Amino acid sequence: MSFTRKHILGGALVVLLGAIVGITYRSLNGLHGQRVIRSAASYVVDVADAKQLVGWADNVFVGRVAGSAGTIYAASALPWNIYQVKVLENIKGDLPESVRVGQEGGFSIEQNAMLLMDNDKLLAPGKEYLFVTKADSRGWHTLVPGYGDIPIGASRQRRAITDKFKEAYAKEIPYDPKQ
Fold it and tell me: Residue 88: which of 57, 60, 123, 64 has the closest Cα?
């Protein structure tokens, strides 16, 4: 049987449509249709109170995720995703132009599941966030799950979020581990 250009293009179109359907299914249902396992964190401060959260943090800043700097897997722990982040505005602290930010959570091959801390979605390259972080001895800044990576959209939204955290910094409640 001889294949014409029409047959080849038709076959390629079917393959392309199959790939698009597969990618869409995976996007809606997670990578490879895996399940999501959510872990709950416990905190030493009321993370919903911006003044306490900022008082605990080493740094509060607006940044744009430049890309992934790798994933670290440890036995019997959630994976850590490390990102390179361009610092756009320091609110608390004085960070350099670019830092590494660590986020607990990620895909576990062993469990064939996405493991998320406090249902905190993984950071997206190219997106801007307000970060609330603590310096980590491993060389990155650890964000607070669910409260330390607030997505920033339009400029009005950015201003409202940064104003809220600037005010919280001015009235911060310093964390005292002895209390």
Answer: 64
Top-tier CATH class for 50-170: mainly beta
- Residue 168 Cα distances to 56, 96, 137, angstroms: 12, 22, 26
Give bridge partners of residue 80 from the DSSP assignment: 72, 104
Tokens describing residue 19: 């790939």
- Asked whether the beta carbons of 64 and 151 are under 8 A apart, the reply is no
Tokens representing residue 111 in the block: 């469990």
Place of tokens 């800044």: 141
Provide the mean pLDDT of the chain: 79
Q: How many residues does the chain have?
A: 179
pLDDT in tens, 77-132: 788 899 999 999 999 999 999 999 999 988 887 778 888 877 788 999 999 999 99
Cβ distance 151 to 69 under 8 Å? no
In the chain, % helix, strand, coil (3-state, to 5) comes to 30, 35, 35
Q: What is the pTM of this model?
A: 0.76
